[in-house]
Design brief:
Two copies of one chain form a homodimer. By secondary structure, chain A is of the alpha/beta class. The radius of gyration of chain A is 27 Å and the shape is elongated. Chain A starts with 18 loop residues before the first helix and ends with a strand. At the A-B interface, helix 4, helix 5, strand 2, helix 6 and helix 11 of A face helix 4, helix 5, strand 2, helix 6 and helix 11 of B. Chain A binds a DNA duplex through helix 2 and helix 4.
DNA sequence: CCATTGTCAACAAACGTTTGCGCACGCCCG
DNA sequence: CGGGCGTGCGCAAACGTTTGTTGACAATGG
């Protein structure tokens, strides 16, 4: 036992080290400590006092109270990410992208799950605004979305990601869903499928309508007239996909292939095919969207439209920080080119190519 | 076009409605508005003034500035969840549990990913402390963890979840890993397996050592002496599980069964078995731990030890809020009884039973 | 030797709340 | 009619920072 009177890290258990306390101990005014701690460039100070203060700062491990700082400086160094459900691997990866980009800049990130409920979304945003978060990244917006307009009106910096809204003039990061939907459908057409079902997203959400348009466009390009019964709304959950797939497969002349608006809904369809004893891809081919990690683990693995999920989050964070830095709302849009990844759910014996590297296809303004 | 001079929501675009501004408009002192807004019980006020103020509050949709409020009241209504990686479905579900329990109480929740790095963990906690979060839920703690001791010393309310630390006297929510490890191993023993490999967690983490102890205890109970070469450390990632499984299966007399410390590592082993052409469960049986959603989607589905993940988060949040409310650090521990779920990765043709409902096995103090 | 300049650090206001205290006014009752 | 009491609300301090301005003192130059 070396030294019975071992010192604790902080001499006394008093936790909140404030400028005033330090000032008393250093025999200087609080403002002086503040300037030293903040490395105020236009501060001239006598070397001895500076060293005395710096020593004290190190000794006490002083960190300014972020709340007080936030009040004075009008910035909290907190961002918020609003998503339907972090339990969905797509949104989990998206969040990581945001944190990985924002954390090095000193930001912490709040996570808000809405479960797709406009009410929860609104209530979260109210709360975030009251907390004076520096910005919001929203991946749960609707095509017509009062809360987006509210954000705009309140002057809160924000970026929409994956789903756009209204006129699409908000700062946005996402993929070209029209192209993506077309790619997926064309792939099935080229494989010879003629009755292709679509597990469609909601008409209230941009991804839903745009991927559906891509699907229809691909059919039209082949001169095929779409069968309305082959398009059934599934939402974005596994269960939703399962129910919709059941309806599709109960049809008299059922589709030989399905394009699902999302990997998770595709997974739902997978389960149904399994339960019905339909072999994938021989009796039913399936294409998803997003290329979540789960896609490669299905057996057979899931053909899907790849988008750089992590990069969605990171790019959105960068766009947001840019707005915060400049103080100017942006209208920049970063659109990635989706890329078809052919796997076993459409083609027997298909391997997955090396992980594709995507770069922004184009960015306006 | 009805009414060209349509009013906007707020009469002018000035966003930050402050007490002072309202006070000027209502011809009263800011403090009076504050008391009305907060429904101060011991406030006596003339009905007319009250109504005037309440009308104004509604009209302007006044919400007190949370930062200023936090400074004065010394509570931010912000919690933080610290985890290795939200991309792991286990932690995503855990987070949902926390948010679902904390959100109704007016809290927002910060999410911090450490990737298992002590440095990142420490830096996150420093930041959280500077922000004066009201409490921390930590699911990334090590057996010997300076940051846990630091939390204790700083007097920051906290709860450990899934992994305990040190003496295990911190407020904690988790499962009985010793029992869980034993259940998994006994199941394999009962199936007749005698060479059972273990994809082990790290010795620096409580789940790692405890589940390993459970594994060894089950072997010992059968009078089997464990083969050291059958225990290989895998960490907690899919890749880690894959690498460890490769080593295990490269052994001269390789194991016929594997108990993996975690579902994700089990998934890694799954992949290896697939690549090696080993049939599961006939040539290799696999048991995981945690029962993440992915477990039911593997083919064959994964036998695993079920723990109520969402409830982990919710219980931890409740424990944390309790400490915050009382102002007293707690020593309560909530331990759930793990439950073996037999599926196709150990027994051919095994169905999954109805979702088990778990209640806390016991709670100390 | 006095005025000017320069160096160092203190002063004070402000950010937007909350809350204990006290003041003025009108009413009642003696 | 006057003292006391209750009602209704304002005053001001405090939470912990940041930052523009001012002031004291020493040094320097003419």
């Amino acid at each position: 036992m070396l030294g019975t009177g071992e010192r604790l890290v902080n001499e006394d258990m008093s936790m909140p080290v404030t400028l005033k306390e330090l000032a008393a101990r250093a025999q200087v005014h609080p403002s002086t400590i503040s300037r030293v701690a903040n490395h105020d460039p236009k501060l001239r100070i006598a070397p001895p006092t500076r060293q005395r203060i710096e020593a004290l700062l190190r000794e006490t491990e002083y960190r300014p109270n972020g709340v007080a700082r936030g009040l004075k400086l009008r910035q909290t160094l907190v961002l918020a990410v609003v998503i339907p459900d972090v339990t969905n691997p797509f949104f989990a990866a998206l969040f990581r992208g945001v944190e990985d980009a924002a954390s090095p800049r000193g930001y912490n990130v709040l996570l808000c799950n809405t479960d797709g409920s406009p009410a929860r979304q609104r209530s979260h945003l109210q709360s975030l605004h009251a907390r004076r978060v520096d910005g919001v990244i929203m991946a749960s917006s609707f095509l017509k979305d009062p809360t987006v307009r509210w954000l705009r009106h309140q002057g809160i910096p924000y970026v929409l990601v994956n789903r756009f809204s209204d006129d699409g003039h908000d700062p946005f990061v996402g993929s070209d869903d029209l192209v993506g939907g077309r790619l997926a459908t064309e792939h099935l057409l080229e494989l010879g499928h003629r009755r292709i079902g679509h597990l469609a997203g909601k008409l209230t959400v941009s991804t839903g309508v745009t991927r559906r348009r891509g699907y229809l466009a691909a059919l039209a390009a082949r001169g095929l007239t779409p069968d309305p019964r082959l398009v059934v709304e599934s939402g974005y959950t596994e269960d939703g996909g399962a129910h919709a797939a059941e309806r599709l497969l109960a049809l008299a002349d059922r589709p030989t292939a399905i394009f699902a608006v999302t990997d998770m809904t595709a997974v739902g369809a997978f389960g149904v095919a399994l339960r019905m004893g339909l072999r994938v891809p021989e009796e039913l081919a399936i294409v998803g969207y997003n290329d979540i990690p789960l896609a490669t683990r299905m057996v057979p693995s899931l053909t899907t439209v790849h988008v750089p999920i992590h990069e969605f989050g990171a790019a959105a964070a960068r766009l947001l920080l840019e707005q915060i830095d400049t103080g100017e709302p942006s209208r920049r849009r970063v659109i990635f080119n989706p890329q078809l990844i052919v796997r076993g759910s459409t083609v027997t014996g298909a391997g997955s190519p090396a992980n594709p590297q995507l770069v922004p296809a184009f960015a306006t303004e």
